Structure formats: C-alpha cells, structure tokens
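@channel sequence for tomorrow's demo:
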Amino acid sequence: MEVALARETVVRSLKVSLIVGSALNLINQGDALMNSESVNIFKCLLTYAVPYCVATYGAVAALRARQDRFD
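structure tokens (generated this afternoon):
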C-alpha cells in the first residue's frame, strides 16, 4: 500500500492517466466534445480513473516482483 501512495507512483500514474484518459475520451466522446453536445461526466471520470489504476497496479507489481527476486 505504501508504494501505491508514494509521491513518485502517484505523480507517474496521474501523468499516464492524463495522457491515456484524454486520448480515450477523444475517441469515445469526441463527437460530443467537438459539437458542444452533452458529455457523460461519469464516463469521462471513469476514463481517467482506469488508466490511473492500471499504472498504479503496474508500478506496485513491478516493485514487488523486483523485491521478491532479491529476497
């Protein structure tokens, strides 16, 4: 849990979420964004949350695997 909440992990995951989430939102809701139509806020937030969780999980898993190798 400490690794997931470490500043370095959070900052890296936020960067990944911003880039990947923005790309996915353009793909999934691009028409609505370009035409000033209604955007589903729940889907928008979820589209940023998923890459954040994936990036955080990847960081934690990689560090645990590395620690297990040296134990």
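heads up for whoever presents: Residues 2-70 form one domain.
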